[in-house]
Design a protein that fits this description.
metal ion binding, pyruvate, 4 strands, about 200 residues, mainly alpha, two-stranded antiparallel ribbon, two-stranded antiparallel sheet, Four Helix Bundle (Hemerythrin (Met), subunit A)
């Protein structure tokens, strides 16, 4: 399997390429749930922003050891914030992309790739003040770029050719999150064709 940095780079480049293919007249159309397409792209683009931002931090202790544990912890944080706060962050991120979202995403991509060059595996501080190693955090961003890239593709009818290393990282993490939230048996049975997933089932 590719390194966490390599998989993230693959996902980030594929995501930026997808954004470039979104027609200019589609940005106000439905994206995902209550988000229009601009807000969905803004939300997904935060996976580039947060990596650059968190690389400027330094945590005193390691609170989260694995990507799946991050998602377990983030559930509690999201619940305390409320759904509206998450929705509004996405809307604001969409507005921040400005008049040329593709160019804005290119700038975010260039910045994060530069920030990752030769960075190693520092202990960073992420949302909620949690300390986590970069190599444990990056798979969560690869996951977000992969899933929301697919959301954008479905909303627009565009293809999204996610590189194999990024897709493998995201799919593997989805299964591991399932185990971490005590739904591993449900996921395994569904993946092996032995049972259907419950209605509205999600690991995140």
């Amino acid at each position: 399997m590719a390194s966490p940095i390599a998989a993230f780079q693959s996902a980030a480049r594929a995501y930026a390429e997808l954004v470039h293919r979104i027609p200019g007249d589609r940005w106000d159309e439905p994206g995902l749930g209550e988000w229009d397409l601009r807000a969905l792209v803004g939300h997904a683009s935060r996976s580039l922003v947060t990596v650059s931002t968190y690389l400027q931090t330094s945590a005193e202790r390691e609170d989260v050891a694995t990507p799946q544990d991050y998602y377990v912890r983030i559930r509690d944080i999201a619940a305390s914030e409320g759904a509206e706060a998450v929705l509004e962050r996405g809307r604001k991120a969409g507005r921040d992309l400005g008049d040329d979202p593709a160019a804005a995403v290119d700038q975010l991509l260039s910045r994060v790739l530069d920030d990752l060059a030769g960075v190693g595996d520092p202990l960073i501080e992420v949302i909620g003040g949690l300390g986590i190693r970069l190599h444990a955090y990056l798979p969560t961003r690869t996951f977000e770029l992969a899933v929301h890239g697919l959301d954008i593709a479905r909303a627009t009818g565009l293809s999204f050719d996610l590189p194999e290393d990024a897709l493998a990282e995201a799919a593997t993490l989805a299964a591991r999150i399932g185990v971490a939230i005590s739904a591993g048996e449900t996921v395994l049975l569904a993946l092996t064709g032995r049972a259907a997933l419950p209605p509205n089932f999600s690991v995140v």
